[in-house]
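INFO  loader      accepted 1 record
INFO  loader      residues=317
INFO  predictor   begin
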Amino acid sequence: MSNQAEKKTKIDLETLLEPYYKRLHYEEERIKTLADSIKEHGLLQNIGLKKTSKGLKPVFGTRRIEALRMLGVKTIPSKKYPHITLDAVRILDISDFEAEKLAHIENEHRRDWSGVEKALSWNDFMEKHGLNQEDMARIVGKSQSYISQKISLLQLPKEIQNGIITRLISDKHGGEFLRMQNLWKTELETNFNQVQLREEIEKVVVQEYKYVVENNLSSRELRERINSLRYCLTRAKICCIWTKDFENEPKLPEQSIGEMLWRDPDGFYTKMAPCDFCNLYCLDSRFWNEDDMDFFTRYSLKHRLFPQEVSTSLESD
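INFO  predictor   done
INFO  writer      dumping tokens
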């Protein structure tokens, strides 16, 4: 690898080729902040360009290039801003493979490079060069489990992936939505074929994603909601209305106690009805042990769940 910037007298930003890995999302405010810094102090970090037969191709520093363009800079050095010089530009005489490797290494240190963007670029790189996740881990200096964790985000619905890319939610939120997908898969896999299963899971997970965005929930708050859902679904199975009715027909998830409790706590009690098979309310305290009672008491206080008649029943028990 050699720095040959001194051999060039000018670099035309308008003729640069597409970078090796183009960002899927730029936060304009961040680029503006970077542009203000460059305007004041010049390029404090390098821009890396690879020589190709068609011209110069950005390897790293794409955000800095965007910031320069925002400032109206067309060439380096800049007549408009004399302190923007060739000193911060590296011309790399390396192979495409080495350039892509270097781009991944540089991108790994960028805080605004989302897990989904990383996963998409890693997948492309691994497929192109016949590499596996262990190879990728060695290249970026991370563990194989870290690579696997990020790539697993690509199992999420596209709407949620886009939410991670655009910073509406974080990678941690994405990990929680994966937990939710796995939870629903466990609950529904015996009732649907694979196409229906994917559709049902995507429907409930995207619905929860919209709720999280609208209410600006943290990943910790999302985890708490999913833990509550897991508990509700587990306890709801004690009543036969959750699994099968008297004629042995599968029930859809929106008919479950756990779903009603989790989705619409205020309307939960009004939707309850005696089970057609055992003729008992699914909330009947005879089903509860001490942990159940503690959970539902805390849950009801937090969400103002039960009307007066149910509260009275709880007190009498």
